[in-house]
Amino acid sequence: MAQIIPDGSNGPAHGAGFMTSDAGRPVGDNQNSMTVGPRGPIVGDDFLLFEKMAHFNRERIPERVVHAKGSGAFGTFVCTSDEIQKYTTAALFQVGKQTPLLARFSTVGGEKGSADSERDPRGFSVKFYTEEGNWDMVGNNTPVFFVRDPLKFGDFIHTQKRHPQTNLKDATMMWDFWSLAPESLHQVTILMSDRGTPMGYRFMNGYSSHTFSLVNAQNELFYCKWHFKSAQGIKNFMADEADQMKATDMDYSQRDLFGAIEKGDFPKWNVKVQVMSEADSKTYHINPFDLTKVWPHADYPLIDVGVMELNRNPVNYFAQIEQAAFEPRNVVPGMGFSPDKMLQARLISYPDAHRYRLGGNYQSLPVNAPQCPYATYNRDGTMALGDNGGASPNYEPNSFGGPVQNPRYTERKVNLDNPVMGRWDHREHDGDYYTQAGNLFRMLGPDGQKRLCANIAGSLSTVPERIRTLQISHFEKCDPAYGEGVSKAVDAALGTAGMKAEPVGELVNA
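Structure (tokenized):
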């Protein structure tokens, strides 16, 4: 029986053995279709032919809208400095600690079949499989971006794709947009410089670009930007060299990265971070959450954090790179987000894109799943893996021993002057759950109230008594007649009319 292992190399047909169908039926002949005589038509009995054809027709999943063509590899991150512990409690930042990771690099605008040496920003994403869950650093090889408001992201990307009439790349679209959006000048300047055509993925830096946040053991908030500095140095193609490479080897960057790792020349990046205090963020002369701006190093110098090394090629590109899903919302305790508008939108848009491309259970795929214990109440959906949670509850709260929240990990409230952003406990500010429900009950009239209570009793009568009793107490707070009506209807359904229920107060305070 095939076993799912964390690196995603599980699957059919590893090593020698006899061929079977997808359902495990032994295959006796994989060379000839089943026909009526040697020259006759194919018959519907040929289960193997139709299985193979149907699977072949579905081998391609939708490519990414942006960052479609990419390369990736596995490796490790080693923390080399304890200075970052002043700013975050994240467990991976202990000196000497090794954290496994997956990195993916990509061009941005081109399709899967485009050339690696196109003039384009490059995606630079890293998934750290930490003991506290996955941390995805989703960035580019540039520290800024073309736009700073997500409302314009789709408009901008359309200009980098194909013209709706000619289906060709169109410089007019690009420059028309850029000229009407001068905030893009910073990124356009980078794109049009030598760094717009890096000489493979090993020879470029990576940046979070977005501003994220850190929280330390004293519950102090800091804002940060991540930098991954290539230990191989920066190397770029000149424009004519990049054009020549497009004609010579469209997969140059993929070949270069895979080949280097294959021969043991493991690429490395020095991981650094810029840190800004919460107080500085309110007064700094540059908006620290503007994606089109950098933080000058003179004001916020780089702090050494560790070293990232890539040392293992994927075993199967589709399973481990094409199905890899990176998303900036994946942060670990001691990390958080910022008011960066583009980041805020990407927290929503990335997982939405993954669900479209890979299905609702994309995070359960081996390459995306955490490599630490995890528990969730999410169930069902396309390609639910494993036992789909078995017989355990798929809701919370529950009284059957399911996983519960841990207040220790509640996100720190962030002071945005007015109002204050955070996970406010709404119960502290509005504990009235009953008035409006009671008003509705009274609006129904006697007949409607009777049907309501009967409908509730139909299902409420099937649950454990402790749950029924507590729920009826809520109905009573809406309107005494509501609670009494449901209680009588439940008693009737159970055939226990007149029997005394367990006192609610004793149950709640037990």
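The first strand starts at residue 70 and ends at 79. The radius of gyration is 29 Å.
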